[in-house]
Design goal:
CATH architecture of the domain at 19-208 in chain A: Orthogonal Bundle
CATH architecture of the largest domain in chain B: 3-Layer(aba) Sandwich
Shape of chain B: globular
CATH superfamily of the domain at 19-208 in chain A: ABC transporter involved in vitamin B12 uptake, BtuC
Radius of gyration of chain A: 19 Å
Number of domains of chain B: 2
Radius of gyration of chain B: 19 Å
Number of helices of chain B: 7
Oligomer: heterodimer
Largest sheet of chain B: 6 strands, mixed
Helix content of chain B: 25-40%
Mean pLDDT of chain A: 85
CATH topology of the largest domain in chain B: Rossmann fold
Largest interface: A-B, 31 and 39 residues
CATH class of the domain at 19-208 in chain A: Mainly Alpha
CATH superfamily of the largest domain in chain B: P-loop containing nucleotide triphosphate hydrolases
Low-confidence stretches of chain B: 1-12, 268-280
CATH class of the largest domain in chain B: Alpha Beta
Shape of chain A: globular
Helix content of chain A: over 70%
CATH topology of the domain at 19-208 in chain A: ABC transporter involved in vitamin B12 uptake, BtuC
Number of helices of chain A: 14
Chain lengths: 282, 280
């Protein structure tokens, strides 16, 4: 028991590890991802789209697997898969209840396809594993460029559309009456989610995308109702989980995703405790 | 309450806050209403009544600029309606909100001011804050301005809705069943807020409702829509057995019980259980 724990939390040679180029790349990637995911998270929570993000992540995995099989960049495949998923979810089901079942159906199909394509792929096994659980070595300098450009795009669109998106996400009926194009915005938002998810998949893996796309926003929503403060907190939480998780995973040489998910979860639990304590004293 | 500002006395012909001329809306073969003429003066309170499907919500959509007329002319504050027009404030019916929705009362009100605009709105934040504070104070909502909207009572939420609609200082207030699912005390608060505003700022009010009684003392005129037929006039002229029987093409009795009107024979009138489709 102690051995396992000792292996999970060790800092042997961490100084040298942090200096390695691939680790630096991973840390930069995490910082960028944390910013984008954190900025989107409160809107995702407002729109009740946690399951849609999950579905999008699974289809990013499918896209990545397809890219692996036909021999093109896995990152691009993931982006393509996630954006297609976002559009499908956005077009097919705008009402929440309908959306849930649409996502369930598409997600299962996409995951099945992905598994099949990975089985057909004859290359290195670590590539396969990387798509599901994320891998620190999967981030190289080309990925970093793609990541940077996509992140800039997402943040730029968010900056221009933030107020109508907030209006449409939190108060759709009145937003519609005020002439906000609610339907178009749901599609735009689905694509933003798709792009961000595709960025997250190679780093934390398809399975754990929720821990950076949802958990920071859900945690922030527990402790504040201010949209601005919630966004700032969500970015901070996402950065802490991603950067902290990466650093902690270095010395043990274990998957990043486990550490990221654990930190994100602990932050969420912490925020719930703070919220409860506050309500009791209020 | 809002600071009592004396409405500017208009010399000559005051432009109507809202006007419809020969207005028609039809979807394919089906005509919802045709030849509708209505002028609403500044400060006037007009109740829009009628059964489900008679086109009350469609009228709202036309005025909000979400749906063009099939024929005729419509003007709001002297101009054709357009999406996001600052001349219009909109109060929806109360709806349950997620208690964990990351949105405070003052954010909801602020969205009514500039939620449809692009950009982050970093410039002019001080002026914005002052407007939101004033709107909150006017509805007595300053005390819960920082509370999550989803955790407020239905009555508190509707007060914020009124503030949200009025924060842009509109000429016309469109209210779409704002009293639905509120208890009597809260119904009275909301109607008093709306009435106070139209008296202090001369805002015209178009009030869609299933139930005229909560607003009966305030209503100047009624627009009653039934299956393409309609009648406009003061409640004493429209809310009669003869007129409603003619509109419904069946025997309808209007009884006056103390200060309430009871309508017998017109289905879905005077009942609270029929939710009208929201504006979309």
């Amino acid at each position: 028991m102690n051995d396992v724990f000792g292996r999970l939390l060790t800092f042997d040679g961490i100084g040298e590890l942090i200096g390695l180029p691939f680790v630096q790349n991973a840390l930069i990637a995490c910082a960028v991802l944390g910013l984008v995911a954190g900025a989107l998270a409160p809107l995702i929570v407002s729109r009740g789209m946690a399951f849609a993000v999950h579905g999008t992540a699974e289809l990013a995995f499918t896209g990545g697997a397809a890219a692996l099989l036909i021999g093109v960049s896995v990152g691009l495949g993931a982006v393509a898969g996630a954006v297609v998923a976002g559009l499908v979810f956005g077009l097919l089901g705008l009402r929440q209840r309908e959306r849930d079942s649409v996502i369930g159906v598409v997600l299962a199909f996409g995951l099945g396809l992905g598994v099949l394509m990975l089985a057909l792929y004859s290359g290195r096994a670590s590539n396969k594993f990387g798509l599901l659980t994320g891998s620190i070595v999967s981030v190289d300098s080309t990925n970093l460029w793609v990541l940077g450009i996509v992140a800039l795009l997402v943040v730029g669109v968010l900056a221009v559309l933030y107020r109508p998106l907030l209006f449409a996400s939190t108060d759709p009926d009145v937003a519609l009456a005020r002439g906000v194009p609610v339907r178009v915005l749901s599609l735009v938002f689905a694509v933003l989610i798709g792009l961000t998810t595709a960025l997250a998949v190679p780093i934390v893996g398809a399975i754990l995308v929720l821990s950076v796309m949802i958990a920071p926003g859900a945690a922030a929503a527990r402790v504040t109702a201010s949209p601005l403060l919630a966004t700032v907190l969500a970015v901070v939480f996402a950065e802490v989980a991603l950067l902290g998780g990466t650093v902690l995973s270095l010395a043990p040489g274990l998957p990043v995703s486990g550490y990221v998910a654990t930190i994100a979860f602990l932050i969420y639990v912490g925020c719930r405790i703070v919220a409860r304590a506050r309500r009791r004293t209020a | 309450m809002a600071a009592p500002t004396v409405p500017a006395t208009t010399t000559g012909v005051a432009p109507a806050a809202l006007s419809l001329r020969g207005a028609r809306v039809s979807f394919g073969e089906r005509t919802l209403w045709d030849g509708l003429d209505l002028d609403v003066a500044p400060g006037e309170f007009v109740a829009v009544l009628g059964p489900n499907g008679s086109g009350k919500t469609t009228l709202m959509r036309v005025l909000l600029g979400l749906l063009p007329l099939s024929a005729g002319e419509v003007k709001v504050a002297g101009e054709p309606p357009r999406r996001g027009s600052p001349s219009i404030g909109y109060v929806p019916q109360q709806k349950a909100l997620d208690p964990d929705l990351p949105l405070r009362g003052r954010d909801l009100v602020g969205l009514g001011l500039d939620g449809h605009k692009l950009g982050l709105g970093i410039r002019g934040r001080r002026a914005r804050r002052a407007k939101v504070d004033a709107a909150l104070a006017a509805v007595g909502g300053s005390g819960y301005a920082h509370a999550p909207v989803g955790r407020l009572s239905g009555g508190e939420q509707q007060r914020l809705r009124v503030a949200q609609a009025l924060v842009g200082d509109p000429d016309v207030l469109l209210c779409d069943e704002p009293l639905l699912s509120l208890d009597l005390a809260h119904q009275r608060t909301v109607t008093e807020l709306i009435d106070g505003r139209r008296r202090s700022a001369n805002t015209a009010v178009l009030f869609v409702t299933h139930e005229i009684n909560p607003v009966l003392p305030l209503v100047d005129r009624v627009l009653y829509l039934v299956n393409g037929r309609f009648r406009v006039g003061p409640p004493s002229e429209v809310m009669t057995s003869a007129v409603l029987s003619e509109l419904y093409r069946t025997r309808v009795d209007v009884l006056r019980v103390r200060d309430r009107l009871v309508v017998v024979g017109a289905d879905s009138h005077g009942e609270h259980c029929h939710g009208e489709e929201p504006v979309q």
